[in-house]
Amino acid sequence: MKLLAFIGLYLAGAAVAFPSIKELKVAAWRRQFLGSTELPGDLATLAPGELSSVGAEIRAILLGQSDGQGNEGYSPPALDSAECRQDECCVWKHVADELYGLMHDAATGTCNDFARGAIRMGFHDAAAWDKFSSWGGADGSLLLSDELLRPENAAMAGVGAKMKGLYEGYTAHGFGISMADLLQCGAKVGVLACPGGPRIRMFVGRPSDATPAPLGRLPPATFTADQIIDLFADKMVSPSGIVTLIGAHTASRNHNVTANPPQDATPGRWDTDYFSEHLRPNASTGVFRFPSDVSLAQSPRTRPLFEQFSAAKGSWDKAYAAEYIRMSLMGVKSINTLRECTKAMPKGDKTVPSEPPADGNPQSPSPSHTTATEYQSSTATIASFSPGESSYPDGSRGHTTVPVNATVYEVKPTTGANANASANANATHEGPDPAAKSVPITAEAGCIKIRLSAVAAACFLAALL
Protein backbone atom coordinates (compact mmCIF):
# COMPACT_ATOMS: atom_id res chain seq x y z
CA MET A 1 0.00 0.00 0.00
CA LYS A 2 2.84 2.36 0.83
CA LEU A 3 4.33 1.67 -2.58
CA LEU A 4 1.00 2.37 -4.27
CA ALA A 5 0.61 5.59 -2.29
CA PHE A 6 4.14 6.62 -3.23
CA ILE A 7 3.44 5.96 -6.91
CA GLY A 8 0.20 7.95 -6.68
CA LEU A 9 1.99 10.90 -5.16
CA TYR A 10 4.79 10.55 -7.72
CA LEU A 11 2.33 10.64 -10.60
CA ALA A 12 0.45 13.56 -9.08
CA GLY A 13 3.69 15.46 -8.66
CA ALA A 14 4.69 14.72 -12.24
CA ALA A 15 1.32 15.97 -13.46
CA VAL A 16 1.79 19.24 -11.60
CA ALA A 17 5.47 19.74 -12.38
CA PHE A 18 5.50 18.94 -16.08
CA PRO A 19 3.62 20.50 -19.02
CA SER A 20 1.12 18.54 -21.06
CA ILE A 21 2.10 16.53 -24.12
CA LYS A 22 0.40 19.16 -26.29
CA GLU A 23 2.43 21.93 -24.65
CA LEU A 24 5.61 19.92 -25.17
CA LYS A 25 4.79 19.50 -28.85
CA VAL A 26 4.21 23.24 -29.27
CA ALA A 27 7.48 24.02 -27.48
CA ALA A 28 9.35 21.42 -29.52
CA TRP A 29 7.92 22.73 -32.80
CA ARG A 30 8.86 26.29 -31.92
CA ARG A 31 12.37 25.27 -30.92
CA GLN A 32 12.97 23.17 -34.04
CA PHE A 33 11.23 25.10 -36.78
CA LEU A 34 10.48 28.68 -35.78
CA GLY A 35 13.78 29.96 -34.46
CA SER A 36 13.49 33.75 -34.18
CA THR A 37 10.96 35.24 -31.80
CA GLU A 38 12.07 38.81 -32.49
CA LEU A 39 9.02 40.97 -33.19
CA PRO A 40 8.96 43.47 -36.10
CA GLY A 41 7.44 46.92 -36.39
CA ASP A 42 5.13 48.19 -33.68
CA LEU A 43 4.67 44.67 -32.33
CA ALA A 44 8.02 45.16 -30.62
CA THR A 45 6.88 48.25 -28.70
CA LEU A 46 3.18 47.70 -28.00
CA ALA A 47 2.15 45.79 -24.90
CA PRO A 48 -0.10 42.76 -25.48
CA GLY A 49 -3.04 44.68 -24.03
CA GLU A 50 -2.56 47.46 -26.59
CA LEU A 51 -2.80 45.17 -29.61
CA SER A 52 -5.76 44.91 -31.93
CA SER A 53 -7.24 41.45 -32.48
CA VAL A 54 -5.31 41.16 -35.74
CA GLY A 55 -2.12 42.50 -34.20
CA ALA A 56 -2.40 39.99 -31.37
CA GLU A 57 -2.95 37.16 -33.85
CA ILE A 58 0.06 38.14 -35.96
CA ARG A 59 2.16 38.32 -32.81
CA ALA A 60 0.99 34.82 -31.85
CA ILE A 61 1.90 33.48 -35.30
CA LEU A 62 5.40 34.94 -35.12
CA LEU A 63 5.89 33.47 -31.65
CA GLY A 64 4.72 30.03 -32.74
CA GLN A 65 1.53 30.21 -30.68
CA SER A 66 -0.91 30.27 -33.60
CA ASP A 67 -1.03 28.71 -37.06
CA GLY A 68 0.01 30.77 -40.07
CA GLN A 69 -2.29 28.71 -42.28
CA GLY A 70 -6.01 29.40 -42.60
CA ASN A 71 -9.07 27.67 -44.04
CA GLU A 72 -11.62 30.50 -43.94
CA GLY A 73 -13.24 31.27 -47.32
CA TYR A 74 -16.30 32.89 -48.85
CA SER A 75 -18.10 33.71 -52.10
CA PRO A 76 -17.71 37.44 -52.80
CA PRO A 77 -20.28 39.74 -54.38
CA ALA A 78 -19.67 41.13 -57.87
CA LEU A 79 -16.61 43.37 -58.14
CA ASP A 80 -18.53 46.51 -59.13
CA SER A 81 -21.32 46.01 -56.61
CA ALA A 82 -21.93 48.30 -53.66
CA GLU A 83 -21.58 45.29 -51.36
CA CYS A 84 -18.06 44.64 -52.65
CA ARG A 85 -16.97 48.19 -51.96
CA GLN A 86 -18.17 47.86 -48.38
CA ASP A 87 -16.03 44.78 -47.75
CA GLU A 88 -12.29 45.41 -48.00
CA CYS A 89 -11.62 41.71 -48.53
CA CYS A 90 -13.98 41.50 -51.53
CA VAL A 91 -11.58 43.11 -53.98
CA TRP A 92 -8.78 40.91 -52.68
CA LYS A 93 -10.88 37.83 -53.34
CA HIS A 94 -11.27 38.92 -56.97
CA VAL A 95 -7.56 39.75 -57.18
CA ALA A 96 -6.48 36.45 -55.66
CA ASP A 97 -8.82 34.39 -57.84
CA GLU A 98 -7.55 36.14 -60.97
CA LEU A 99 -3.95 35.56 -59.92
CA TYR A 100 -4.65 31.89 -59.22
CA GLY A 101 -6.15 31.46 -62.69
CA LEU A 102 -2.99 32.94 -64.22
CA MET A 103 -0.62 30.89 -62.05
CA HIS A 104 -2.22 27.44 -62.01
CA ASP A 105 -2.21 25.25 -65.14
CA ALA A 106 -5.57 23.49 -65.02
CA ALA A 107 -4.53 21.00 -67.72
CA THR A 108 -1.52 19.66 -65.82
CA GLY A 109 -2.59 20.60 -62.29
CA THR A 110 0.75 22.33 -61.68
CA CYS A 111 2.00 25.88 -61.15
CA ASN A 112 3.71 27.85 -63.90
CA ASP A 113 6.42 30.47 -64.42
CA PHE A 114 4.10 33.31 -63.42
CA ALA A 115 3.60 31.65 -60.03
CA ARG A 116 7.36 31.15 -59.67
CA GLY A 117 8.03 34.77 -60.54
CA ALA A 118 5.39 36.05 -58.13
CA ILE A 119 6.88 34.03 -55.27
CA ARG A 120 10.29 35.47 -56.04
CA MET A 121 8.93 39.02 -56.30
CA GLY A 122 7.41 38.78 -52.84
CA PHE A 123 10.80 37.76 -51.45
CA HIS A 124 12.77 40.39 -53.31
CA ASP A 125 10.44 43.25 -52.40
CA ALA A 126 10.37 42.36 -48.70
CA ALA A 127 13.94 41.17 -48.10
CA ALA A 128 15.63 44.27 -49.55
CA TRP A 129 15.67 45.57 -45.99
CA ASP A 130 17.26 45.03 -42.60
CA LYS A 131 16.42 46.25 -39.11
CA PHE A 132 19.02 49.01 -39.40
CA SER A 133 17.29 50.51 -42.47
CA SER A 134 14.70 53.26 -42.10
CA TRP A 135 13.08 52.36 -45.43
CA GLY A 136 12.64 49.40 -47.72
CA GLY A 137 10.95 46.07 -47.09
CA ALA A 138 7.48 44.95 -48.19
CA ASP A 139 6.47 48.32 -49.63
CA GLY A 140 5.93 47.63 -53.34
CA SER A 141 9.01 49.60 -54.37
CA LEU A 142 10.16 46.66 -56.50
CA LEU A 143 7.55 47.70 -59.10
CA LEU A 144 7.05 51.35 -58.15
CA SER A 145 10.72 52.30 -58.64
CA ASP A 146 13.50 51.21 -60.99
CA GLU A 147 14.50 48.19 -58.87
CA LEU A 148 13.73 45.78 -61.72
CA LEU A 149 16.79 47.19 -63.48
CA ARG A 150 19.05 45.78 -60.78
CA PRO A 151 20.85 42.58 -61.83
CA GLU A 152 19.25 40.48 -59.09
CA ASN A 153 15.77 41.47 -60.31
CA ALA A 154 16.22 41.57 -64.09
CA ALA A 155 14.72 38.11 -64.71
CA MET A 156 11.41 39.26 -63.20
CA ALA A 157 10.67 41.98 -65.78
CA GLY A 158 7.96 39.97 -67.54
CA VAL A 159 6.20 38.99 -64.33
CA GLY A 160 6.50 42.57 -63.13
CA ALA A 161 4.72 43.86 -66.23
CA LYS A 162 1.80 41.49 -65.60
CA MET A 163 1.54 42.52 -61.96
CA LYS A 164 1.58 46.19 -62.92
CA GLY A 165 -1.23 45.54 -65.37
CA LEU A 166 -3.33 43.91 -62.65
CA TYR A 167 -2.62 46.76 -60.27
CA GLU A 168 -3.63 49.40 -62.80
CA GLY A 169 -6.79 47.49 -63.71
CA TYR A 170 -8.09 47.31 -60.15
CA THR A 171 -7.10 50.85 -59.21
CA ALA A 172 -8.89 52.04 -62.36
CA HIS A 173 -12.06 50.54 -60.86
CA GLY A 174 -11.56 52.82 -57.86
CA PHE A 175 -10.19 50.20 -55.48
CA GLY A 176 -7.40 51.55 -53.33
CA ILE A 177 -5.27 48.43 -53.18
CA SER A 178 -1.59 48.97 -52.46
CA MET A 179 1.25 47.60 -54.55
CA ALA A 180 2.86 46.44 -51.31
CA ASP A 181 -0.14 44.22 -50.54
CA LEU A 182 -0.44 43.04 -54.15
CA LEU A 183 3.12 41.69 -54.25
CA GLN A 184 2.66 39.78 -50.99
CA CYS A 185 -0.74 38.49 -52.08
CA GLY A 186 0.86 37.32 -55.33
CA ALA A 187 3.62 35.47 -53.47
CA LYS A 188 1.11 33.62 -51.29
CA VAL A 189 -1.19 32.76 -54.19
CA GLY A 190 1.85 31.61 -56.16
CA VAL A 191 2.62 29.06 -53.44
CA LEU A 192 -1.01 27.96 -53.35
CA ALA A 193 -1.09 27.57 -57.14
CA CYS A 194 1.49 24.81 -56.77
CA PRO A 195 -0.42 21.67 -55.73
CA GLY A 196 0.42 20.81 -52.15
CA GLY A 197 1.18 24.44 -51.25
CA PRO A 198 0.06 25.80 -47.86
CA ARG A 199 -2.79 28.32 -47.67
CA ILE A 200 -0.98 31.15 -45.91
CA ARG A 201 -3.06 33.68 -43.99
CA MET A 202 -3.31 37.06 -45.70
CA PHE A 203 -3.08 40.45 -44.02
CA VAL A 204 -3.57 43.74 -45.88
CA GLY A 205 -3.03 47.42 -45.17
CA ARG A 206 0.67 47.88 -45.94
CA PRO A 207 1.49 51.34 -47.30
CA SER A 208 3.37 51.55 -50.59
CA ASP A 209 6.56 53.53 -51.14
CA ALA A 210 8.22 54.34 -54.47
CA THR A 211 11.62 54.98 -52.85
CA PRO A 212 14.11 52.39 -54.18
CA ALA A 213 15.07 49.84 -51.56
CA PRO A 214 18.56 49.88 -50.01
CA LEU A 215 21.26 48.16 -52.05
CA GLY A 216 23.09 45.03 -50.98
CA ARG A 217 20.35 43.51 -48.85
CA LEU A 218 19.72 40.41 -51.01
CA PRO A 219 22.13 37.45 -50.95
CA PRO A 220 23.85 36.43 -54.21
CA ALA A 221 23.79 32.76 -55.21
CA THR A 222 27.50 32.53 -54.36
CA PHE A 223 27.11 33.29 -50.64
CA THR A 224 28.16 30.66 -48.12
CA ALA A 225 25.82 29.41 -45.42
CA ASP A 226 27.56 31.55 -42.80
CA GLN A 227 27.25 34.68 -44.94
CA ILE A 228 23.54 34.02 -45.52
CA ILE A 229 22.94 33.39 -41.82
CA ASP A 230 24.69 36.64 -40.88
CA LEU A 231 22.74 38.59 -43.51
CA PHE A 232 19.34 37.24 -42.43
CA ALA A 233 20.03 37.70 -38.73
CA ASP A 234 19.67 41.42 -39.45
CA LYS A 235 16.26 40.66 -41.01
CA MET A 236 15.03 38.88 -37.84
CA VAL A 237 15.22 35.48 -39.56
CA SER A 238 16.96 32.58 -37.82
CA PRO A 239 19.01 29.82 -39.50
CA SER A 240 16.00 27.50 -39.28
CA GLY A 241 13.87 30.25 -40.81
CA ILE A 242 16.30 30.51 -43.72
CA VAL A 243 16.02 26.78 -44.46
CA THR A 244 12.24 27.00 -44.16
CA LEU A 245 12.03 29.84 -46.67
CA ILE A 246 14.67 28.51 -49.09
CA GLY A 247 12.45 25.45 -49.50
CA ALA A 248 10.36 27.59 -51.87
CA HIS A 249 13.02 26.67 -54.43
CA THR A 250 11.05 23.44 -54.79
CA ALA A 251 9.01 25.39 -57.35
CA SER A 252 11.78 27.52 -58.87
CA ARG A 253 13.79 27.57 -62.08
CA ASN A 254 17.08 29.30 -62.81
CA HIS A 255 16.32 31.81 -65.55
CA ASN A 256 19.96 32.89 -65.78
CA VAL A 257 20.76 29.61 -67.56
CA THR A 258 19.53 28.96 -71.11
CA ALA A 259 17.60 25.78 -70.32
CA ASN A 260 15.89 27.35 -67.26
CA PRO A 261 16.68 24.27 -65.13
CA PRO A 262 14.69 23.68 -61.92
CA GLN A 263 16.09 23.24 -58.42
CA ASP A 264 14.42 19.86 -57.99
CA ALA A 265 12.85 17.37 -60.38
CA THR A 266 9.25 18.50 -59.75
CA PRO A 267 9.12 22.31 -60.08
CA GLY A 268 5.40 22.36 -60.80
CA ARG A 269 4.38 21.20 -57.35
CA TRP A 270 5.03 22.05 -53.72
CA ASP A 271 6.82 19.10 -52.14
CA THR A 272 9.93 18.29 -50.11
CA ASP A 273 11.96 16.98 -53.05
CA TYR A 274 14.09 20.14 -52.94
CA PHE A 275 15.42 19.18 -49.50
CA SER A 276 16.09 15.59 -50.57
CA GLU A 277 17.79 16.78 -53.77
CA HIS A 278 20.22 18.99 -51.87
CA LEU A 279 21.18 16.24 -49.43
CA ARG A 280 22.52 14.14 -52.31
CA PRO A 281 26.25 14.21 -53.14
CA ASN A 282 25.54 15.31 -56.71
CA ALA A 283 22.67 17.01 -58.51
CA SER A 284 20.18 14.84 -60.37
CA THR A 285 20.16 15.00 -64.16
CA GLY A 286 18.43 18.18 -65.34
CA VAL A 287 18.53 19.85 -61.92
CA PHE A 288 20.55 23.00 -61.18
CA ARG A 289 21.67 23.63 -57.59
CA PHE A 290 22.71 27.12 -56.51
CA PRO A 291 26.05 27.18 -54.66
CA SER A 292 24.39 28.99 -51.76
CA ASP A 293 21.72 26.29 -51.47
CA VAL A 294 24.36 23.55 -51.49
CA SER A 295 26.28 25.38 -48.78
CA LEU A 296 23.17 25.58 -46.59
CA ALA A 297 22.50 21.87 -47.11
CA GLN A 298 26.07 21.02 -46.08
CA SER A 299 26.51 23.40 -43.14
CA PRO A 300 26.17 21.79 -39.69
CA ARG A 301 24.15 24.85 -38.68
CA THR A 302 21.40 24.17 -41.22
CA ARG A 303 21.75 20.62 -42.60
CA PRO A 304 19.72 18.98 -39.78
CA LEU A 305 16.62 20.89 -40.86
CA PHE A 306 17.12 19.84 -44.49
CA GLU A 307 17.08 16.26 -43.21
CA GLN A 308 13.99 16.78 -41.09
CA PHE A 309 11.96 18.66 -43.69
CA SER A 310 12.80 16.09 -46.37
CA ALA A 311 10.59 13.64 -44.47
CA ALA A 312 8.06 15.98 -42.84
CA LYS A 313 6.06 18.05 -45.32
CA GLY A 314 3.36 18.93 -42.80
CA SER A 315 5.92 20.44 -40.45
CA TRP A 316 7.55 22.34 -43.30
CA ASP A 317 4.20 23.74 -44.52
CA LYS A 318 3.37 24.98 -41.04
CA ALA A 319 6.82 26.48 -40.56
CA TYR A 320 6.79 28.06 -44.03
CA ALA A 321 3.46 29.79 -43.43
CA ALA A 322 4.73 31.39 -40.22
CA GLU A 323 8.12 32.34 -41.65
CA TYR A 324 6.64 33.82 -44.81
CA ILE A 325 4.26 35.95 -42.76
CA ARG A 326 7.38 37.21 -40.97
CA MET A 327 8.99 37.87 -44.35
CA SER A 328 5.91 39.70 -45.65
CA LEU A 329 6.10 42.14 -42.71
CA MET A 330 9.72 43.21 -43.17
CA GLY A 331 9.94 46.97 -43.00
CA VAL A 332 6.23 47.37 -42.16
CA LYS A 333 6.06 49.76 -39.24
CA SER A 334 2.33 49.68 -38.39
CA ILE A 335 1.51 45.99 -38.19
CA ASN A 336 -1.14 46.49 -35.51
CA THR A 337 -3.41 48.30 -37.97
CA LEU A 338 -3.41 45.56 -40.62
CA ARG A 339 -6.62 43.68 -41.45
CA GLU A 340 -7.00 39.98 -42.12
CA CYS A 341 -8.36 38.81 -45.47
CA THR A 342 -7.49 35.12 -45.37
CA LYS A 343 -11.02 34.39 -46.58
CA ALA A 344 -10.02 35.98 -49.89
CA MET A 345 -7.40 33.33 -50.60
CA PRO A 346 -8.28 30.65 -53.20
CA LYS A 347 -8.99 27.18 -51.91
CA GLY A 348 -5.94 25.66 -53.59
CA ASP A 349 -5.28 21.96 -54.04
CA LYS A 350 -3.49 19.87 -51.43
CA THR A 351 -3.54 16.88 -53.78
CA VAL A 352 -0.10 16.56 -55.34
CA PRO A 353 -0.36 15.16 -58.90
CA SER A 354 2.26 13.03 -60.55
CA GLU A 355 4.58 15.15 -62.64
CA PRO A 356 7.28 14.15 -65.12
CA PRO A 357 10.66 14.93 -63.53
CA ALA A 358 12.90 17.57 -65.05
CA ASP A 359 15.08 15.04 -66.84
CA GLY A 360 12.17 13.04 -68.21
CA ASN A 361 13.16 9.88 -66.34
CA PRO A 362 11.00 8.04 -63.83
CA GLN A 363 11.10 9.65 -60.42
CA SER A 364 12.33 7.67 -57.46
CA PRO A 365 10.05 7.71 -54.40
CA SER A 366 10.31 10.91 -52.41
CA PRO A 367 11.23 10.62 -48.72
CA SER A 368 8.14 12.72 -48.00
CA HIS A 369 6.05 9.73 -49.08
CA THR A 370 8.22 7.06 -47.47
CA THR A 371 7.00 5.02 -44.52
CA ALA A 372 8.77 5.15 -41.20
CA THR A 373 10.13 1.65 -41.68
CA GLU A 374 11.66 2.57 -45.05
CA TYR A 375 13.08 6.00 -44.30
CA GLN A 376 16.18 6.49 -42.18
CA SER A 377 17.69 9.88 -41.53
CA SER A 378 21.12 10.47 -40.12
CA THR A 379 19.62 11.31 -36.74
CA ALA A 380 17.09 8.56 -36.05
CA THR A 381 15.63 5.30 -37.21
CA ILE A 382 11.97 4.51 -36.64
CA ALA A 383 11.69 0.76 -36.09
CA SER A 384 8.78 -1.34 -37.30
CA PHE A 385 6.15 -1.98 -34.65
CA SER A 386 3.39 -4.54 -34.58
CA PRO A 387 0.45 -4.40 -32.16
CA GLY A 388 0.99 -6.81 -29.30
CA GLU A 389 4.78 -6.90 -29.53
CA SER A 390 6.59 -6.27 -26.28
CA SER A 391 10.19 -6.32 -27.49
CA TYR A 392 12.02 -3.93 -29.81
CA PRO A 393 15.12 -4.06 -31.99
CA ASP A 394 17.30 -2.56 -29.25
CA GLY A 395 16.51 -5.54 -27.01
CA SER A 396 14.42 -3.58 -24.53
CA ARG A 397 10.86 -4.37 -23.52
CA GLY A 398 8.01 -1.89 -23.44
CA HIS A 399 9.90 1.06 -24.89
CA THR A 400 12.68 2.13 -27.20
CA THR A 401 14.73 5.30 -26.94
CA VAL A 402 16.27 7.71 -29.41
CA PRO A 403 18.62 10.65 -28.70
CA VAL A 404 16.83 13.83 -27.69
CA ASN A 405 18.23 15.65 -30.72
CA ALA A 406 16.85 13.03 -33.07
CA THR A 407 13.76 13.21 -35.22
CA VAL A 408 10.88 11.77 -33.20
CA TYR A 409 7.64 10.68 -34.81
CA GLU A 410 4.30 10.12 -33.14
CA VAL A 411 2.74 7.33 -35.16
CA LYS A 412 -0.10 4.83 -35.05
CA PRO A 413 0.40 1.36 -36.51
CA THR A 414 -1.94 0.06 -39.16
CA THR A 415 -4.08 -2.96 -38.32
CA GLY A 416 -2.78 -6.47 -38.76
CA ALA A 417 -0.40 -8.70 -36.87
CA ASN A 418 2.68 -7.67 -38.86
CA ALA A 419 1.71 -4.11 -39.75
CA ASN A 420 4.43 -1.46 -39.79
CA ALA A 421 4.11 2.00 -38.30
CA SER A 422 3.96 4.87 -40.80
CA ALA A 423 5.18 8.36 -40.05
CA ASN A 424 2.48 10.90 -39.36
CA ALA A 425 2.30 13.60 -42.05
CA ASN A 426 2.82 16.16 -39.30
CA ALA A 427 5.76 14.46 -37.61
CA THR A 428 6.59 15.63 -34.12
CA HIS A 429 10.15 16.78 -33.55
CA GLU A 430 11.73 17.13 -30.13
CA GLY A 431 14.80 19.31 -29.81
CA PRO A 432 17.79 18.97 -27.49
CA ASP A 433 17.17 19.11 -23.75
CA PRO A 434 20.36 19.38 -21.69
CA ALA A 435 18.60 17.86 -18.68
CA ALA A 436 17.45 14.70 -20.46
CA LYS A 437 19.33 11.69 -21.79
CA SER A 438 16.61 10.30 -24.03
CA VAL A 439 13.00 10.66 -25.12
CA PRO A 440 11.17 7.38 -24.51
CA ILE A 441 8.60 6.16 -27.00
CA THR A 442 6.18 3.90 -25.14
CA ALA A 443 3.68 1.38 -26.50
CA GLU A 444 0.22 1.87 -25.07
CA ALA A 445 -3.13 0.70 -26.48
CA GLY A 446 -1.58 -0.14 -29.82
CA CYS A 447 -0.03 3.30 -30.30
CA ILE A 448 3.40 4.84 -29.94
CA LYS A 449 3.33 7.93 -27.79
CA ILE A 450 5.94 10.35 -26.58
CA ARG A 451 6.10 10.35 -22.78
CA LEU A 452 7.96 12.27 -20.12
CA SER A 453 10.68 10.21 -18.47
CA ALA A 454 9.13 10.61 -15.02
CA VAL A 455 5.63 9.58 -16.10
CA ALA A 456 6.94 6.66 -18.13
CA ALA A 457 8.94 5.36 -15.18
CA ALA A 458 5.95 5.64 -12.86
CA CYS A 459 3.69 3.84 -15.34
CA PHE A 460 6.28 1.08 -15.66
CA LEU A 461 6.37 0.62 -11.87
CA ALA A 462 2.58 0.56 -11.72
CA ALA A 463 2.48 -2.10 -14.43
CA LEU A 464 4.66 -4.36 -12.29
CA LEU A 465 2.16 -4.36 -9.41
UniProtKB/TrEMBL annotation:
Source species, domain of life: Eukaryota
Family per similarity comment: Belongs to the peroxidase family. Ligninase subfamily.
Ligand binding (Ca(2+) 1): 125, 137, 139, 141
Lineage: Eukaryota, Fungi, Dikarya, Ascomycota, Pezizomycotina
Assigned keywords, A-Z: Calcium, Disulfide bond, Glycoprotein, Heme, Iron, Metal-binding, Oxidoreductase, Peroxidase, Signal
Active site positions: 124
Disordered: annotated segments: 345-377, 417-436
Residues annotated for Ca(2+) 2 binding in this entry: 250, 264, 266, 271
Protein name in UniProt: Peroxidase
Signal peptide region: 1-17
Cofactor(s), by name: heme b; Ca(2+)
